[in-house]
Design goal:
363 residues, alpha/beta, Quinone Oxidoreductase, Chain A, domain 1, Rossmann fold, seven-stranded mixed sheet, 19 strands, binds zinc ion, Cinnamyl-alcohol dehydrogenase ELI3-2 Cad, oxidoreductase activity, acting on the CH-OH group of donors, NAD or NADP as acceptor, oxidoreductase
Length: 363
């Protein structure tokens, strides 16, 4: 029924009605929420969402831990589904294709960063994030994410997904995959490099898989040894529970840790000329800082932050992941399980990436 309504709306250039799960304030639990998405433009596609991953960022955003959130908020930026309608000028997709949407849905397209397909760093400040963002290209209306039955997006910001792809595993690649793939490429990791992955959750697991794919020798820093067997099965060289135990030195360290920790302890473990990329984002009130004095005495090492990756690179990551069979471990849940999933993720009890089966929305 709903889909039929959407197709009529798309054809008539009307706003697209949508149903999702939202929180209405930072301490709220998720409840059903009906809303509308902007009308289809000539370069837009309408995607029926089949799967949406739950990212730790969703929790930070829903709880206003990075900034004051825009409510009601429908999180979700790991979206995979099927194209059900296309605008007149769409060339990349046809109806029936699989498509994905990651962390952003638009940008200015004209600045140096956008021209280099680094849309997440749009110099005009017009990166439109998939949710919890005001869309300046559509009358400053709030964007709503993937915990919903559909999304309208410019084809430029949609990823092509082949028909035989396991969609439920593709969804988390669009954030967890690209976030870890991008800095490994940026630091030009190659065969034989010594790489350490700090934090062994959803992001950490993907970082390990891509580093191994690139031929690196990989070690892990994790809170405990619970995942020792999993690490060994992957081909990881060592698992440390604390930086003080480690006698190795690394060419590259990627930190996916989402809580407060001492960055400098990791910088100490870099070789001269080594690089450390930070992708994990602790809540702001934890004030995770770099000690400048220690950094100066760690001369010749580079520390940088990294935020997702551009659209072109996301497509590259997706193509490689599908070809090489590099996927996250996922647990499929229904919309009614979102609140419980948030609880588990917060308490560190989640074993795998939760992915919401959107068919559960209708039932
Ligand atoms: Zn994410
Ligand atoms: Zn731009």
């Amino acid at each position: 029924m709903l889909l039929q309504d959407n197709l009529t709306q798309a054809k008539n250039g009307e706003k697209i009605s949508a149903r999702g799960y939202a929180v209405t304030h930072k301490d709220d639990t998720f409840k059903p929420f009906d809303f509308t998405r902007h009308a289809m433009g000539e370069n837009d596609i309408l995607i029926e969402i089949l799967y949406a991953g739950i990212c730790h960022s969703d929790i930070h955003s829903a709880r206003s831990e990075w900034k004051d959130g825009i409510y009601p908020m429908v999180p979700g930026h790991e979206i995979a589904g099927r194209v059900v309608a296309i605008g007149n000028k769409v060339s990349k997709f046809k109806v029936g294709d699989y498509a994905g949407v990651g962390c952003m849905v638009n940008s200015c397209g004209e600045c140096e960063a956008c021209k280099q397909s680094q849309e997440q760093f749009c110099e005009n400040g017009k990166t439109i994030f998939t949710y919890d963002c005001l869309d300046c290209f559509h009358d400053n209306t709030p964007t709503y994410g993937g915990y919903s039955n559909n999304i309208v997006v410019s084809e430029k910001f949609a990823l092509q997904v082949p028909q035989d792809a396991p969609l439920e595993k593709v969804a988390p690649l669009l954030c967890a995959g690209i976030t870890t793939y991008s800095p490994l490429k940026f630091s030009k990791i190659k065969k034989g490099d010594k790489v350490a992955v700090a934090g062994f959750g959803g992001l950490g697991l993907m970082a390990v898989k891509y580093a191994l794919y690139l031929g690196a020798e990989v070690s892990i820093f994790a809170r405990n040894t619970l995942k020792m067997q999993e690490a060994k099965n992957l081909g990881v060289k060592a698992l440390y529970t604390d930086t003080s135990e480690c006698r190795e030195r690394f060419d590259f360290i990627i930190s996916t840790i989402p809580t407060a920790y001492d960055v400098n302890n990791y910088v100490d473990l870099l070789k001269f000329g080594g690089e450390m990329a930070i992708v994990g984002l602790p809540p702001v009130e934890l004030k995770t800082h770099i000690d400048v004095t220690r950094l100066v005495f760690s001369a010749g090492k580079k520390v940088y932050g990294s935020l997702i990756g551009g659209i072109q690179e996301t497509q590259e990551m997706l193509d490689i992941s599908l070809k090489e069979g590099i996927y996250p471990e996922v647990e499929i849940i229904g919309v009614n399980d979102i609140n419980k999933a948030y609880e588990n993720l917060t308490n560190g009890k989640a074993k795998f990436r939760y992915v919401i089966d959107m068919k559960s929305l209708e039932g």
